[in-house]
Amino acid sequence: MPNIITFSTGQCGNQVGRKFWGTLIDEHGIDHSGKYCGTDPSQLERLDVYFHEASNGKFVPRAIHVDLEPGTSEAIRNSNFKDLFRPENFIFGQSGAGNNWAKGHYTEGAELIDEILDVTRREVESCDNFQGFQLCHSLGGGTGSGLGTLITSKLREEYPDRLICTYSVLPSLHSNAVVEPYNTTFSLHQLVENADQVICLDNQALNNICSNSLRLATPNYEDLNQLIAQVMSGITCSLRFPGQLNSDLRKLSVNLVPFPRMHFFLASYAPIVAQGSKSFTASSVAELTQQMFDGRNTMADCDPRAGKYLTASALFRGNIATFDVENELSKVQSRYATNFVEWIPNNIKFSVCENPPKGLSKSVTFLANSTAIQQPFKRIADQFAAMYKRKAFVYGFLNEGMDELEFQEAELNLKDLIDEYQQYQEASIEDDEGD
After folding, report:
1. 196 and 163 Cβ atoms separated by less than 8 Å
2. Residue 362 in contact with residue 319, Cβ under 8 Å?
3. Residue 117, CA atoms < 13 Å, CB-side half-sphere
């Protein structure tokens, strides 16, 4: 089976990573010390995708935790996860990035990158069939954005034929740092070139799901991160468990990325229902399919109906017949024909994994390469342009060794990406072939 190494970078990335590993050990019957205590043989069958077995029978996650300040790592090492992770795989600085992308990418982050790559090489060497990396980070802060994208660029140099998939948390409309548009634009500039798949999430959309669908009065980051962990678990389930139709990171890439630069995906998950409503909710394939196309379940702050689906992938879990899935997806494509580009026929791929998530009988994780992703990108580009026009806060980045030309390159690259999505949204099957 393929092996995948997971990076958790910055405060957001480490908190999301902790929820992800908590979900994985629950599903595979592993306790917080790494010992197997499950009862189902399928839990062990493909465990080596994300874990390797130590000599004492303990299962150790293929995980690397990185931050520019020690607080996040200490929080994990003082939690009930303290005996799960390999101690040498916690790499942290002391000073933090102070919401500055350049500190994470050029100065503070550059001091840690050699140690990070050494730990990465050791993890890769312990793999039998290494397929790629996944990285959790936010794009608005300094460490997740600056150091996160430095890690992706170094991984691309050192492992050019391996896949890099990122779970990237975009800043929401009501951001908590003034320089987030700069940090995000610089990060997207890097991710366009160095990542193979970028799953875009944002706190505003996650917050709306928690408030409106889960009926939580005051959602916190734990609740938001649990939603991201469910998506990550759903995307990787057919790597980890047997199924009728399997999928992996490479198959996802082949089916979801029609053009190399356009690898930014929207994610949604179903069922999302409040705890008190579970007994009143049907979990048929029809219901799941309807929910996954519902804009209210999309985990990025945009309206999928305002764009067009280039490609999509539905990853079902549970005791589900492939015929039912084919039937429902065919109905959806007929019903929402105008929401799909006509020049990519049969553009929904699906897989079925027999092991349901804990506490549910069926679920589906939906990834879409939709032109609607340009909505948050436009918002970020407009905020960037407004500040950069007056050169506001630029000095803080230049003092860390950045060149002002990088501002212009990053802005232009993001604008080009938005234009590409718009171009393919408007393209029709009769158009002349592009060059």
Report:
1. yes
2. yes
3. 17
- Written as six digits, the tokens of 227 are 């939603």
- Whether cis (ω within 30° of 0) applies to the bond prior to 271 is yes
> pLDDT value at position 435?
46
pLDDT digits (tens, 9 = 90+) for 36-68: 998 888 889 899 999 999 888 899 999 999 999
Written as six digits, the tokens of 53 are: 């077995």
**Measured between alpha carbons, how far is 372 from 425 in angstroms, rounded to an integer?**
9
Number of Cβ within 10 Å of residue 126's Cβ equals 14
Vertex 344, ends 324 and 302: CA angle to 5°? 80
Residue 160 CA to residue 252 CA, distance in Å, equals 18
Which has the closest alpha carbon to 249: 373, 125, 367, 144? 367
Structure tokens at 328: 């429902």
Q: What does the block give as tokens for 409?
A: 């390159």
* pLDDT tens for each residue of 125-184: 999 999 999 999 999 999 999 999 999 999 999 999 999 999 999 988 777 789 999 999
Tell me the Ramachandran region of residue 216: left when phi exceeds 0, alpha when psi lies from -120 to 50, beta otherwise.
Answer: beta
Tokens of 50: 């994300």
Backbone angles phi, psi at 171, to 5 degrees: -65, 145
Residue 52 makes CB contacts below 8 A (sequence gap 6+) with: 3, 59, 60, 62, 126, 127
Beta strands 264-270 and 309-318, pairing class: unpaired
Contacts 24+ apart (CB under 8 A), 107-112: 107/400, 107/401, 108/68, 108/147, 109/68, 109/143, 109/146, 109/147, 109/150, 110/150, 112/66, 112/68, 112/147
**Neighbouring residues of 348: CB distance < 8 A, sequence distance ≥ 6:** 309, 311, 312, 313, 314, 329, 332, 333
Residue-level pLDDT at 431: 67
